[in-house]
Specification:
The chain has about 290 residues and is mostly beta strands. The chain folds into two domains: about 100 residues, Tumour Suppressor Smad4 (Sandwich); about 120 residues, no CATH class. About 10% of the residues lie in helices and about 40% in strands. It has three helices and 18 strands. The protein has a five-stranded mixed β-sheet, with no helix packed on it. It has a four-stranded antiparallel β-sheet with strand order 1-11-10-9, with no helix packed on it. It has a four-stranded antiparallel β-sheet with strand order 14-13-12-18, with no helix packed on it. A hairpin with a 2-residue loop joins strand 4 and strand 5. It is elongated and about 65 Å long. This is DUF1684 domain-containing protein. Pfam families: DUF1684.
């Protein structure tokens, strides 16, 4: 059957779409995933607005913008003297000074136990937000600033070109009851349960990664040969769905992403365990942000 010249462009377009079917939708999927990742970093509970991490001493810890405080908030964002944190036997109570203007939601705070609690109790003063975290037997105030220069100056994260060859089929090997030693950047070591490991092949060589998290949502802290050069020196994170009925899943390195420490000195990131340090160069996913090598 002859094709009319007027329909030839449409035929050619159809052939092009058929030729790229499978790649274009995949690339769009990765870019959409990465855009959502960017949006999450910029949210109030994202990592771009971290402005401080203050370790508390047992007893009273005064806080505010004045340098004489035990916990010194940014002076251009805070009243000079806001009150004190009292740490006693694993519990943290906040006592606010009169007219300190500290709120939880819209409720002014005068004296409250803020740690422990079922979920982090986020308090606010002007553009500042903070809550208490625990790392081992130490307690700290994690501070956010909604007017953070890091947030305001954020221009996105460079990534490797999307390449479907980095979406790898992987065999899940269950390791129920196994624990992995994780060291964070502060030097603290803690044990995390591992539901299993994934076995996969890169350039003809077999590798494994030990997971943390749950069998339904596997999480990996890994290093590779690009770290410290093209990617963040402290390794990257990657998530994967749980295995199917045959024990397989997909490990998509195009979705490898930077840990919080790549954006802020105030995060306490885990570092890759030695068994998750790959000797391959994973040329996929997020690259180094700024000068955080």
């Amino acid at each position: 059957m002859n094709v009319s010249k007027s329909y030839l462009p449409f035929v050619l377009l159809s052939l092009i779409l058929v030729a790229f079917k499978g790649e274009a939708p995949y690339e769009a999927e990765i870019k959409e995933w990465h855009q959502k990742r960017i949006e999450s970093l910029k949210k109030e509970d994202g990592w771009l607005n971290l402005a401080g991490l203050y370790w508390l001493e047992e007893g009273e810890n005064t806080f505010g913008g004045d340098a004489s405080n035990a916990v010194v908030f940014p002076k251009d964002r805070s009243n000079a003297f806001l009150g004190k944190f009292i740490l006693k036997e694993g519990k943290v109570t906040l006592i606010a000074n009169k007219d300190a203007q500290i709120f939880e939601g819209e409720q002014p705070i005068s004296e409250q136990q803020i740690f422990p609690s079922e979920s982090p109790r986020v308090l606010k003063h002007k553009s500042l937000r903070w809550f208490v975290i625990q790392r081992g037997n130490k307690y700290a105030v994690r501070l956010r600033d909604l007017e953070s220069p890091t947030l305001k100056n954020f221009k996105g994260i460079d990534t490797y070109p999307v390449d479907q060859k980095w979406k790898l089929k992987a065999k899940f090997v269950p390791t129920a009851g196994k624990k992995i030693s994780i060291v964070d950047i502060t030097g603290r070591t803690y044990e995390q349960e591992s539901p299993g490991q994934l076995v996969f092949t890169v350039q003809g060589k077999e590798y494994t990664l030990d997971a943390v998290g749950t069998k339904e949502r596997l999480h990996f802290i890994f290093a590779d040969k690009t770290n410290g050069d093209e990617t963040y020196g402290g390794g990257r994170f990657l998530d994967a769905p749980g295995p199917d009925a045959d024990g397989y899943t997909w490990l998509d390195f195009n979705k490898a992403y930077n840990p919080p420490c790549a954006f802020s000195p105030y995060a306490t990131c885990p570092t890759p365990p030695k068994q998750n340090r790959l000797t391959a160069s994973i040329l996929a996913g997020e690259k180094t942000y700024g000068d955080h090598h």
